[in-house]
Amino acid sequence: MANVASVVGRTQSGFDGRTHHHNPITAPRKIPYKRLMWLAILLSALAMTAIVGVRYLIVSGAFAAATRARHPGLYRGLDAQMRREIWWSIASAAIYGIPAGIVAWGWQNRGWTQIYTDLHAWPLWYLPVSVLAFLFAHDTWFYWTHRWMHRPKPFKLAHAVHHASRPPTAWAAMAFHPIEAITGAVIIPLLVFLIPIHVGALGLVLTIMTVMGVTNHMGWEVFPRFMWRGALGGWLITASHHQRHHEQYGCNYGLYFRFWDRLCGTDKGLGDFTKSHAKAAARVAPAVGSGGRAGVADAGSSSPRHAA
Predict the structure, then answer these.
(1) Do the domain assignments include residue 305?
(2) Which residues constitute the domain of residue 259?
(3) How many percent of the chain have pLDDT more than 90?
(4) What is the overall mean pLDDT for the chain?
(5) Is residue 15 part of a domain?
(6) How many domains are contained in the chain?
């Protein structure tokens, strides 16, 4: 009986009455679950990296085009600098995309995070509250990590990469050393575990983060005057406020709000684009006669401290 069972176990009768032997080599093999899981996580991280990179190229490219239309010649002579900004930014996209992709996979497959999709899971009034909570928490993290990066050793090691853009352009928003990129990449994935937020509200937070990161560096004010002058401008950060940071370095560390700068005595008011625009105009003339070399040299040797 044992021999019969053994034969039956190794054979299978077909409809034609003939016996077919199973070939273990050609039999389908099941991929282990853990291997599939890690593959899915890897694909999620790669997809998110691509999303972050494409988003950067589209938004920065759009505002760079707007700069060329509104202020022709403002970026003249800065081609080498802008190529470097794009290179560092694409590298940063991977650093931002990896934790975001891992958390996105966990949210979809394991129920990680406090992200919710049912609009009525929380009261409607909570939607703007959650957005403000995310922005304030992000701004707090950014202020203190940014201020730390202006200490001599972290600045020389990492943050100098970002400040090598003189003046910064619309392409400089993500031009970070990997160490600095890591400090920026972890905060939103961490906050989604701590603060409940609707997926649409999270999209708004990411949109604000992207737009402000680009417009703060583009070298001119794209927003209406009331947003950076007067009562509202006393609390919001736009390009004029961040311009002063890139001029003087030791001030204006915030990202969205002037709260921490004002509380800690590091708010030095608004910068003035007049001198940076005058320098751009000065670059145009030699660039015409020297194929742009003088303009690039001027950009690399600009003094980091200008009177506003």
Answers:
(1) no
(2) 33-271
(3) 72
(4) 86
(5) no
(6) 1
